[in-house]
Q: What sequence folds into this?
């Protein structure tokens, strides 16, 4: 035997936020939102526009709702079960005084959910709409969540039935369309293109030195094959930053675009000249804002004996494929980084790209 009870309640219709009220203020008090079971106006009418315009036809009644007479319902006394449907939750309160036959409050269930709280007068359920095994469906333009409040008594003892099962359907109705509007505007933007030359804020220098790392005077001559020492240096760096020489090439003129050139350092820090047989060109030491390296003195055929070295430098926080100081170890037959793992030099015989994250700044220096 089962007992089916129906819970009925009345949903009062009205404009959420209240009707328009005219006071001594010259401003209207408009409702901030409005629910509806079906579309009220075209969505495009609520898009902001760059200029003022009259209120489109059909929206006046929505923005300025007519005040409706307040409706009332004759009181029916305390209710055994009261339901409140929140934004994403459901609240159910059961008056234990009116359901005295169902004595054990912990045998009540809202779908699959147990009682949340119990006191001498009431028992409460407080759960999310998506919990408790409820069902949802679209009915008449509204989203309806359905649950069952039930009481399942223990099996009867003997031939007497003391309490019967209780089944009570509960529904939460939600309008599918929610209109939220405020006064707004769309700014008129004038697009401009700004071109700015970006230059490094760091200062870079390249100094020619002797074997004691002392600067040599201008016009110093070197014998063919003699080692020429260079000190690459930058201004004050941030903690963890280091200076790298990305490329260097020699020309017989000051023109960096000269077709007659010899590559010394290429591919973001690969000492290409160190791979030449009998070469003594190497990165020698590095750290922070200073990098030292040596290059074998050379000559161009049938041209001036004055050489110009053009170098590109960068600053980076980490050693990577594009921030490194690699020499070729002829005995081992491989490229090796001055301080880091040889793996960053693996691209020296191909093309090095930015394969690792790194922040760097660059500059070109000639000497």
A:
């Amino acid at each position: 035997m089962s007992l089916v009870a129906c819970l009925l309640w009345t949903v009062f219709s009205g404009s959420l936020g209240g009707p328009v009220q005219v006071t001594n203020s010259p401003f209207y008090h408009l409702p901030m939102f409005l629910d509806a079971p079906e579309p009220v106006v075209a969505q495009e009418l609520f898009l902001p526009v760059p200029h003022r315009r009259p209120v489109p036809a059909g929206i006046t009644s929505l923005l300025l709702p007519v005040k409706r007479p307040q409706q009332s319902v004759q009181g029916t006394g305390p209710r055994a079960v009261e339901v409140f449907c929140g934004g994403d939750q459901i609240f159910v309160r059961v008056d234990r005084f009116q359901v005295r036959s169902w004595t054990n409050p912990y045998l009540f269930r809202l779908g699959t959910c147990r009682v949340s709280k119990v006191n001498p007068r009431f028992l409460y359920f407080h759960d999310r709409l998506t919990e408790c095994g409820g069902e949802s469906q679209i009915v008449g333009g509204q989203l309806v969540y359905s649950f069952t409040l039930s009481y399942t008594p223990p099996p009867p003892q003997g031939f007497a039935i003391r309490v019967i099962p209780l089944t009570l359907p509960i529904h939460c109705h939600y309008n599918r369309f929610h209109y939220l509007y405020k006064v707004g505007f769309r700014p008129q933007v004038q697009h401009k293109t700004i071109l700015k030359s970006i230059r490094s804020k760091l200062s870079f220098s390249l100094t020619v030195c002797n074997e004691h790392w002392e600067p040599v005077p201008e016009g110093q001559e070197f014998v063919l094959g003699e080692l020429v020492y260079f000190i690459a240096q930058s201004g004050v760096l941030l903690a963890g930053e280091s200076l790298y020489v990305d490329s260097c090439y020699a020309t017989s003129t000051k023109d960096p675009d000269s077709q007659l050139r010899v590559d010394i350092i290429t591919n973001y820090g690969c000492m290409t000249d160190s791979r030449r047989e009998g070469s003594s060109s190497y990165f020698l030491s590095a750290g922070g804002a200073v990098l030292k390296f040596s290059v074998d003195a050379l000559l161009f055929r049938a041209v001036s004996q004055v050489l110009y070295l053009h170098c590109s430098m960068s600053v980076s926080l980490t050693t990577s494929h594009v921030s490194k100081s690699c020499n070729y170890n002829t005995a081992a037959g491989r490229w090796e980084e001055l301080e880091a793992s040889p793996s960053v030099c693996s691209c020296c015989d191909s093309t090095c790209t930015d394969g690792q994250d790194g922040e760097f700044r660059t500059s070109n220096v000639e000497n």
About this structure: The longest strand covers residues 142-151.
